[in-house]
C-alpha cells in the first residue's frame, strides 16, 4: 500500500513531536517508496539492485539527520523527494560511468505530485537563490542542481575547486537560513 502525502506528513509531525513509533512507521513507509524509486532509476541504466539498497540507507540517514529542517507547514513528499534526488545524483556522480545515461529530469520521480507543487518549489528555490551573489548561485546550480563535479563547475566558473566548495557550502547555509526565517516564500 502506498502511503499518502497526508499520512506521511502526519507521521513526520508525530515523529518530530517525539512519537518514536510514528517515526519508525514513517521510516518503514519511506524505505518502501525509496527502494522502488531507486530500483526503477538504476534498472533503467543497468545498475545493480545492491546500489539501490545503499541509496535507500543513505537517503534514510539524510532524512533522519536533517529532519529538523523540515517545515511542518509545508508538504512533506517534496522535501523527501529532494533528498532522494540529490542522493541519486551524488551516487551517480561518484560512480561516473552511468552518469551520462541518466537524464537529470528523470531523477525526481519519487512520488506523483500535483504540477503546482513542483512549480511552487522551483519558484521558492529561485527566490532563495536570487538572494545569493552570482558566483554562489552558479556554483550551487552547477554542482547541486546540474550534477557537475566540483572540477567541472570550477572550470565553467573560472574559479578554483576550493572556491567552488566554499561557495556551495556558504550558499546552501545562507539558503537554509532563509528557509528557517521564512524568506523563501
UniProtKB/TrEMBL annotation:
Instruction: Say which domain of life the source belongs to.
Output: Bacteria
Ranges in coiled-coil conformation:
none
Query: Which keywords has UniProt assigned to this entry?
Result: DNA-binding, Sigma factor, Transcription, Transcription regulation
Provide the organism lineage as a comma list: Bacteria, Pseudomonadati, Pseudomonadota, Alphaproteobacteria, Hyphomicrobiales
Task: Please give the name of this protein.
Answer: Sigma-70 family RNA polymerase sigma factor
Q: Where is the RNA polymerase sigma-70 region domain?
A: 39-95
Q: Is DNA-binding included in the keywords of this UniProt record?
A: yes
Q: Which Gene3D superfamilies match?
A: 1.10.1740.10, Winged helix-like DNA-binding domain superfamily/Winged helix DNA-binding domain
Protein family membership: Belongs to the sigma-70 factor family. ECF subfamily.
Q: Which residues form the RNA polymerase sigma factor 70 region 4 type domain?
A: 125-175
Amino acid at each position: 500500500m502506498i502511503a499518502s502525502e497526508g499520512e506521511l506528513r502526519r507521521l513526520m509531525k508525530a515523529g518530530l513531536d517525539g512519537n518514536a513509533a510514528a517515526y519508525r512507521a514513517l521510516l518503514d513507509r519511506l524505505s518502501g517508496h525509496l527502494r522502488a524509486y531507486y530500483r526503477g532509476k538504476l534498472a533503467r541504466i543497468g545498475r545493480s539492485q545492491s546500489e539501490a539498497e545503499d541509496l535507500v540507507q543513505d537517503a534514510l540517514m539524510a532524512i533522519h539527520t536533517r529532519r529538523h529542517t523540515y517545515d511542518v507547514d509545508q508538504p512533506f513528499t517534496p522535501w523527501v523527494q529532494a533528498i532522494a534526488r540529490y542522493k541519486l545524483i551524488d551516487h551517480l556522480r561518484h560512480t561516473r560511468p552511468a552518469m551520462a545515461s541518466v537524464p537529470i529530469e528523470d531523477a525526481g520521480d519519487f512520488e506523483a505530485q500535483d504540477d503546482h507543487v513542483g512549480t511552487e518549489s522551483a519558484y521558492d528555490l529561485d527566490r532563495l537563490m536570487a538572494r545569493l551573489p552570482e558566483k554562489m548561485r552558479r556554483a550551487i546550480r552547477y554542482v547541486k542542481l546540474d550534477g557537475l563535479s566540483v572540477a567541472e563547475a570550477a572550470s565553467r566558473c573560472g574559479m578554483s575547486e576550493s572556491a567552488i566548495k566554499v561557495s556551495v557550502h556558504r550558499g546552501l547555509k545562507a539558503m537554509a537560513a532563509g528557509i528557517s526565517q521564512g524568506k523563501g516564500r
